[in-house]
Design goal:
13 strands; 216 residues; NagB/RpiA_transferase-like; Glutaconate Coenzyme A-transferase; alpha/beta; transferase; ten-stranded mixed β-sheet
Length: 216
């Protein structure tokens, strides 16, 4: 299991029964593969699906049934299909409980930059702004550092802000941070990580409030 899969598996622990959950592009979409059968969770995709299941395998993929990242997915019994305008109306109207999205950076207050790196060609913000503003809970799922080892948890954002609404939870490959009253609290240290490593790889100021130990 690679780092991205480990993050996605840990995301599942924070999803509750009967929630409507939007999984963003990248690591968040992988979380669909780890939803436990005893959890009745309704996965929402902003391109117009409510009832997404796991990522499709080669033998059951339908190129017409894809998630927001254009990856073929399987669907649950009773799935609903609708147009993109209705999908965003659900988000903006407060009908999505949780959004799991990626991030380029998260600052010390939990504010998120996840759509643009100045000087680089990107596709655009997509639904990130709407999700941050419209859902009840936002979970960030991201690697703790960039490919060249720079912290993604920073004192101040270097990239354009996505929304003035902060995230509620940040899940990386090293730990889990909770955002409370504009401050980061480390609440879990993940297997094979240490507090010293997290401090060394985190530029943002945070406080330690360990709630539990996660077993791999």
């Amino acid at each position: 299991m690679n780092i991205k899969e480990k993050i996605a598996r840990n995301v599942e622990r924070y999803l509750q029964d009967e929630e409507v959950v939007n999984l963003g592009i990248g690591i968040p979409t992988i979380a669909a593969n780890y939803i436990k059968e005893d959890k009745n969770i309704y996965l929402h995709s902003e391109n117009g699906i409510l009832g997404v299941d796991s990522i499709a395998t080669a033998d059951n993929a339908d190129p017409n049934i894809v998630n927001a990242g254009k990856i073929p997915v399987s669907v649950q019994k009773g799935v609903s299909y609708f147009n993109s305008a209705d999908s965003f109306a659900m988000i903006r109207g407060g009908h999505v409980d949780v959004a799991v999205i990626g991030a380029l950076q998260v600052d010390k207050n939990g504010l998120v930059a996840n759509w643009n790196i100045p000087g680089k060609n990107v596709l655009g913000v997509g639904g990130a702004m709407d999700l941050l503003e419209g859902v009840k809970k936002v979970i960030i799922a991201t690697t703790h550092t960039t490919k060249d080892g720079k912290s993604k948890l920073v004192e101040e954002l270097e990239y354009p802000l996505t929304s003035l609404r902060p995230a509620d939870l940040i899940i990386t490959d090293l730990g889990v941070f909770e955002v409370e009253e504009g401050q980061l609290f480390l609440i879990e240290i993940l297997p094979e990580a240490t507090l010293e490593e997290i401090k060394d790889k985190t530029d943002a100021n945070f406080k330690v409030k360990i709630k539990e130990t996660v077993n791999d």
